[in-house]
Write a structure and sequence with these properties.
The chain has helices spanning 3-16, 25-37, 55-78, 86-111, 117-121, 126-136, 141-166, 173-202, 207-223, 241-244, 268-272, 282-294, 297-309, 315-342, 354-360, 367-395, 399-426, 431-449, 454-458, 467-473, and strands at 261-262, 351-352. With 476 residues, it is mostly helical. It folds into two domains: 55-230, Heme Oxygenase, Chain A, CATH 1.20.910; 261-473, Ferritin. The chain has a two-stranded parallel ribbon with strand order 1-2. The chain is globular and about 100 Å long. The N and C termini lie far apart (60 Å).
Length: 476
């Protein structure tokens, strides 16, 4: 018997009095007397039993919500290299985690709706995939924001609100709480997107082009029954960009026109032409550290692309990568704002693209080596030096840098720990083989960029850079 039929019979039986009440008058009168004598008048709970969904129906809808959120986190990760605009790249790093965290919360709720984690993680939906693939085929960052936020984001936010209204507010209270918490992230995310798209239009992006793309994706979403799959279906728009050319993530790190960039070296002093401060001085060390934090815009790109490259291999690894991506976005903000607090215009200091250039082209099996470089070399390198920097900042009464380094140190320790599981998902190589192959690949890349000369390389053991040399040249 269908669940809906059972519900109908129960409601009919309740209304017809098939299940009579056996209330005793003396007990009811005594209860009413106790109630009247009770001195406290607490707020009345206005919720009523009754909702549209059974547990099974609820789980079917939540599975689609989960899958949409998981796919949006992956999708944004794939675009991190190809977004040139600094503020948009930063916000994207934050939004990757917002969507991954929404998926994480929905995933946990689904395990309470009689689904196992393997079953939740194995959920796939070809119609949602078709929508995501088309959304990813955006021509540029403005079109990406239109698809992710003005189409998918708005539709999800509205679906969450409707689900809260339709489900049972008492029996399904945990679902309502989760959806309301997710919507707390959606509110500032969608508002930021509106303002960002307005900024693009005011800056010269053709508004009609964005409108055409918005309408195209809205029709595509309608053709799959909307977010829940239950809405009336429209005809699928044609043609689809993704049908003519399947989506592939970018490999080249982009920066907007406010930046000057360099990739021929990992040394800020060499890139600047001459040192800004005496080498080895606290002032030099201080500025170098803050510049590396601002330049962790490349780490947003790295962890975002890793998330895309390992998609569907392991949800916990995806979730860890999403959180690290958000952390790297915060580190970039820390560096940018600290430069301002130090008296610099952050865009006057050239941006280092060396490491991001090397990592960007590492896809497929090679993605593990890019992850190893940033986790085993870059983050470990920071941990080797940050304690000394923090202590020096405190001795110098450099309150700003002491504050920054304290939080960054805690983040990096967490990243190194989480990185072990991520690497285990990305490769079966042992630590020694993984390190050596990573060194080989990054040596080749740095030579091709001119950051290391062939003559210098000939003097090195085995003709490849040591771990320490890569830490110094690339870092994080």
């Amino acid at each position: 018997m269908a669940v809906s039929t059972k519900q109908g019979l129960l409601e009919s039986a309740y209304r017809s009095g098939e299940f009579p009440v056996q209330s005793r008058p003396e007990e009811r009168q005594a209860a009413e007397a106790r109630q009247k004598a009770y001195p406290y008048r607490f707020p009345r709970d206005r919720r009523q039993l009754g909702g549209k969904f059974s547990v099974q129906q609820n789980a079917e809808i939540l599975s689609r919500f989960f899958y949409f959120e998981r796919r949006l986190a992956q999708a944004l990760g794939s675009w991190t290299l190809s977004i040139p605009d600094f503020e948009v790249k930063l916000e994207t790093g934050r939004h990757i985690f917002y969507h991954a965290d929404a998926a994480h919360q929905l995933r946990e709720r689904l395990t309470e709706q009689e689904m196992t984690l393997p079953k939740v993680d194995a959920y796939r939906n070809e119609e949602i995939d078709r929508f995501i693939e088309e959304m990813l085929s955006a021509a540029d960052a403005p079109e990406l924001l239109v698809g992710v936020h003005q189409v998918a984001g708005r539709a999800l936010d509205l679906a969450y609100a409707h689900h809260c209204d339709l489900t049972d507010p008492i029996t399904d209270a945990p679902t309502i709480r989760i959806l309301r918490r997710i919507r707390m992230d959606y509110e500032p995310m969608l508002e930021w997107a509106e303002q960002a798209i307005e900024a693009y239009i005011e800056g010269g992006v053709d508004e009609s082009r964005l409108s055409v793309w918005r309408w195209h994706l809205q029709r595509l979403l309608a053709s799959i029954g909307g977010v829940t799959g239950t809405e009336e279906r429209a005809e699928q728009p044609s043609p689809l960009r993704s049908a003519a050319r399947p989506y592939e993530r970018g490999t080249v790190p982009l920066r907007d026109s406010r930046f000057t960039t360099f990739r021929h070296t990992g040394d800020y002093d060499a890139a600047d032409g001459e040192p800004r401060f005496e080498r080895g001085s606290y002032e030099s060390f201080r500025l170098h550290f803050i510049r590396t934090q601002r330049d962790e815009v490349d780490a947003i790109e790295a962890f975002g692309t890793f998330l895309w490259d390992i998609r569907f291999k392991d949800f916990d690894a995806e979730y860890a990568l999403a959180r690290i991506t958000w952390d790297e976005a915060r580190h970039t903000e820390i560096g940018h704002r600290t430069m301002q607090a130090m008296g610099y215009n952050p865009f006057e200091l050239p941006n280092r693209l060396t490491s991001s250039t090397c990592r960007g082209e590492m896809t497929g099996d090679n993605a593990a080596f890019a992850m190893a470089e940033i986790n085993l070399f870059g983050e470990v390198s920071i941990l080797k030096t940050i304690n000394g920097l923090h202590d020096s900042a405190k001795l110098a009464n450099d309150i700003l840098l002491a504050h920054d380094s304290d939080y960054i140190r805690a983040d990096e320790r967490t990243h190194v720990r989480k990185g072990r599981h991520i690497l285990s998902v990305m490769t079966d190589l042992g630590s020694r083989d993984l390190e050596r192959r990573t060194r080989e690949l990054f040596t080749e890349c740095l030579v091709s960029l001119g950051a290391v000369s062939a003559e210098t390389l000939s003097l090195m053991q085995d003709g490849i850079l040591s771990r320490e040399e890569i830490e110094q040249l690339v870092g994080e």
